[in-house]
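Schema walk-through. Below, the input block comes first and the output block second. Nothing else is stored per chain. Lengths vary across the set, and this one has 431 residues.
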Amino acid sequence: MGTIERFFRLKENGTSVSVEVTAGLTTFLTMSYIIVVNPQILAAAGIDQGAAFVATCLAAALGSLAMGLIANYPIALAPGMGINAYFAFTVVGALGVPWQTALGAVFLSGCLFLAISLLRIREWLVNSIPFSLKLGIGAGIGLFLGLLGLHGMGVVVAKPATLVGLGSIGTPSTLFACLGFVLMAGLAARRVPGAILVAIGVITLAAVPLGLVTFHGVVAPPPPLSPTLLQLDIAGALKLSLVSVVLAFFLVDLLDNMGTLIATLHRAGLMRADGTVPRLGRVLLADSGGAIVSSLLGTSPTVSYIESASGIAAGGRTGLAAVTAAGLFALSLLCAPLALAVPAFATAPALLFVACSMLGALRDLEWGDATEALPAAVTALGIVFTFSIATGIGLGFIAYVGVKLIAGRWRDIGGAVWLIATASALMLAIE
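--- output ---
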């Protein structure tokens, strides 16, 4: 125990082994829904669901372990919600990019993330991107997830006359899905740890008597990872037409991680008085490394999870909490039969639930300043209505530059905004 206390500086941070382990367990329970949801999303891209389950568990375990050991922060990593949907439904589904090539784009974005971490230009990039556009990106991804969740629940369906319309609410699967969302929201309001996972489990069990679910055991050796391991196509991802995809993966990964980092560390009281983050370089090294490893394993990029705030609320202050979560993700590999038996209608409400929480970003916009609020709104609306995170981000940056110029406030435009807006305009013109 003495070695553990010294390595993680437990006394210095006013915590103990038992508190950190409890915090890690709390974080795991809160975010463990991803080991059920992510494989189903990636399966829509043609990836073997069993291999995706293993890749998800391993990516979460290795990413969380790196964050705990390298940065010593109580933040767990796993394949991100929103960016996994972009991977499956936009890049592979809408654009027709093979999933192997999409993994190559994830690898390149991770290398780009790693490069800015090593070259110490991350602060310039992060600080140059307006806060309003960061909020717009977060809200837009929330809307994107919400649409996917409602469609997966059967509440929203495609209709030629109106583009979208109401589905058949009376079908058993849709009723179960709606009940699942209400259950998640109610349990979350009561602050029940793992509310999403509990609701998924309850709905799955409730659907068994109707023959909608078939179990093939609870514990078994994990499925083979060979269908996805090292199957990425990096050469294919180097095409000019995929530059916007790589940039989207990179931006979402960077902004998601920075937003989560700021929110969670502020909650834990681990930020400096001037608002800067200690050991930022180590954090970004763990994050970027996680994205690279994800592509090698065969899943969408890992990100820092905002659900880590639940573990922080339970007292987590050091990387021991993240290491504990990592160990639990590794143990989850033995639960493949249980995870793979969960039906899509039980996990779809999780997308809607996460989407609703992400829409809260809109309340922090300066709605009285049209040069800030309107480009952010364009970003959010562009993401969901073009069904592309990359396109929505590009439209938002272009709108930001245009509105600021016409308003005579060109000095507000940072260097990174000029760069991204110009690149986005060129890519949209090519498309």
